[in-house]
Every structure is written in structure tokens, then in C-alpha cells.
Amino acid sequence: MGDQVRILYVDDDPEFADAVVASLEREDDRFVVMTARSASEGLDGLAVNGVDCIVSEYDLPDRTGIEFLETVRERDPDLPFVLVTGAGNETVASEAISAGVTDYLIKSRGTDQFERLASRVSTAIERYREKRVERRLRELARFREEIIESANVWINVLDTDGNVVLWNEAAEQLSGYTADEVVGHDAIWEWLYPDAEYRADIVDHAGDILQGEKAVQEFETTITTRSGDERTVSWYSRAIVSGEEGDLGSVAIARDVTDRNRRIREIEEKTAALERQNERLEAFAKIVSHDLRNPLNVAIGRLDLAREQRDSKHLEVVANAHERMTQLIEDLLTLATADDDVCERRSVSLENLVEACWEGVDSRDASLRVELEGTITANESRLRQLFENLFRNAVEHGRDDVTIIVGDLDDGFYVEDDGPGIPAAERERIFESGYTTAGNGSGLGLAIVENAVEAHGWTIDATEGDAGGARFEIRGVDSKETNRP
């Protein structure tokens, strides 16, 4: 028992009550005795003070000791209750037993009755506490079993011979074998691993745990389920050890990682494919920048010499072809070397950048209206590519005097022209590399625009402008700041 035992003694005889209190506390120094003179007063004390045992006289002023016992049992079915009566009575004893009394004691003369009472109280409390511990252990065991059964991971327990002693519901669902089929033997491993050589390796892993050579094992295996499916399972297994009895077996927790491993392989394959593609792009960029640009520069130089000697409309066609080839090489290099993400960003004035980009484009007789202001956080080089290619696209596909408007949106900006516009059926294809309706276009300009937009995490949509021309809306520019009131 604990260091202190709290006892409630109920009796309307103060002289006898004092004797009981003194005797009980003298018999066992752990006893702390509180008194009450009626059942009602005892119930009040029980509600306020937690007690380990009640000792009550049968004859109480407000009810009998049995009626008091029945009220106590409604509150606590197991609390030790010792009934004391002045005279033996089989009827009273029978009623007390039926009401759930813990012990029954008849008063007698002499001090030995107090020794008997102390012994009865001590025994009753010992049994009560043992039952409470046993009940708590049963509750914990039931709670543990419920956790194991309701867990969404496979849990099994083996004894030291490798026989299954526990097989939870998740193990049943994944393997296809029920606990009734599995528990009590080790045949499950032959069912899960039909290949003898592979099974031997798995059994070695489990044996290291069971024989105490390793405390913990983490590994993956491929099991064959009852339906014949192969699933990859990740295991965490450890020994069950008792300080007194030594090794008792092992517990294993398993998760089906088939889908996870497949996703990892897919990601790895895609990553490898992207790396190979990047290597090819780098090699291509090298070819474009050196092997194509050098002979083109020679051709342009030779053309300049030829034009100094004579003028011909045929040479003008060659010059236009050179110009187109130069633009095509620049566009190819831009696409080949552009990053999918932009790390270097800073505050950029939209109005200033738009006007600077316009100056860098062969605008012919076209005009620009800038109806936006403020700043955004962006990579200036990629943003310049975006505007220059949109401007060039408008000039190449519109009239010579096309008007281009750059304006504000709530979460971004737009570029719009009053040219012929883009047919609705073509708007999904215009961002594809190589797609063009202009005879002298590379088909890469809008692909460069989309690449720059996506690298910033924005979106772009092609739609129809107010004058029927093309309108490109760039949204998702959440770092935009304007100076407007």
C-alpha cells in the first residue's frame, strides 16, 4: 500500500468512535481516520475527501448501514466498505453481502476487536488496490490492442521461434491473409516470399532480431500478396526484451511504399531526362553561337563588300535573309539558355523599361502608348525579352502604323494592339515554339514571352483587344506597386 491510508469511520457513538480512531491509528501508522456521525455526513465527507476505505456502524440515526452501503455502491462499486454491528444477525449479514459489503465484523469486548478491525481494513484495501491495478492493466491492454488493430500500418509480433503471435487488421488488408490463418506458426513467410532464396535472406534479417544480434532493423522487401500482386514494403523491426526474461521476440511495423517508390523512380527518370535535355541544349547553344554565327558574320561581311562594288535588288533579298537568320539565332539562343526560374530579381520601373524596350525594336511607323506606371519585382533581362518580343510580334503581324498600348491590370499588366488580332481557334497554339503566320517570323518570339512569364511564376493569356487586335494579359504579378493615389 501507499504511505497513507484514508479511512472514513461512521458512527453516532462518539465515545466508541474515538476509541476506534485511536486504536486504528495506533495499529498502523499509515492509517488516517476521519469520522462522521450519520450516513448523510459520511456521504458529504466522501464527496469532499477521497478515502481508501469506509467503516460504518449498522445502526445510524438517519438510515441503516446497509442503506448507506447501497448509496456508496451507486457512487463507487468497488470502494472497500466494512460493516460493523453490535450483534450477529444472519439476515443483516445476508443483506450486507447482497449489497456488496467488503467485510462484516461483529463488535466484541476487549481491545482485540480493534486489531481485527485494523487487519480487516488493511486486507480490504490491499485487495481493492490490487483489483484497481489489475483493472487498469486490463484497460491498458485493451487500449493497446485497439490501437494496434486500428493503426493504418502493418503491425506483427513474433515469438523467439519466429511464430506469429499478433497480426493486425492493416497486415490482413495488405497481405490478404487473416490473423486466424497466420497466428500460431511461421508459414506466412513462405506465402509472402515464395522464392526460397529470397525468403532465406528475409529470414536472416528477422533472425538477427530474434537472436538478439541486432536491436533494430530497417529494410525493404517485395512481398507477394494472396491475390498474387507484388508490393514493396518498408519494415521497421526491433526486439522485445524483458529485464527478467530476456528476449521475448520481435515487433515489426511495415508500410506499403510501392506507390511512393514508383513516384520516386518517375521523378528520378524525369530529372535524368531533363539533365540530358539540358546537356543537349547546351551543346546546341554552343553550335548556334559559334558554328552558325561565325559563317553568318562572314556572309554579312562579304555582302557588305559586294554592295560597295554594285547595288542589286538581289543583294537586298540576301541582306533580309541575313537579318532573319541573325534574329532566328538570337531567338534560339534565348530559348536554349533561358532558366526555368529567375533568382536575381530587383525593383524595375515599368514605364522606363517599356520605353527602353520600344527604342530597341524596329518599330517602322508603329506607335506606342504607355498607360501604366509603378514598379514590380522582376528579372530585368527576362522582362525586357518579354516586352521586346511582344512589340516585335505586334509590328510584324499588324499594319505599318499599328498602335500598341501597354496598360495596368489589378494584378499585372497587358500589351494590346489595334492590328488584325488573333483568331480564337489559334490562341492556344501561338505560344508553341516554331508557330508563326508571318513569312519572315522565326516562330519563337511568343515562346520566349511565355518562358519569361512562367519563370517569374506569372500567367499569360491571349485575348481580343478593345479595337479587335491582339491583347496579351500578364497576371499574378503580386509584387506590383503603383504610385497612383
Automatic annotation (TrEMBL):
GO terms for molecular function: phosphorelay sensor kinase activity. It is an enzyme of class 2 (transferase). Keywords: Coiled coil, Kinase, Phosphoprotein, Transferase, Two-component regulatory system. Its EC number is 2.7.13.3. The keyword Kinase applies. InterPro entries: CheY-like_superfamily, HATPase_C_sf, HATPase_dom, His_kinase_dom, HisK_dim/P_dom, HisK_dim/P_sf, PAS, PAS-like_dom_sf. It comes from the Archaea. The lineage of its organism: Archaea, Methanobacteriati, Methanobacteriota, Stenosarchaea group, Halobacteria. Residues 257-287 form a coiled coil. The keyword Phosphoprotein applies. This is histidine kinase.
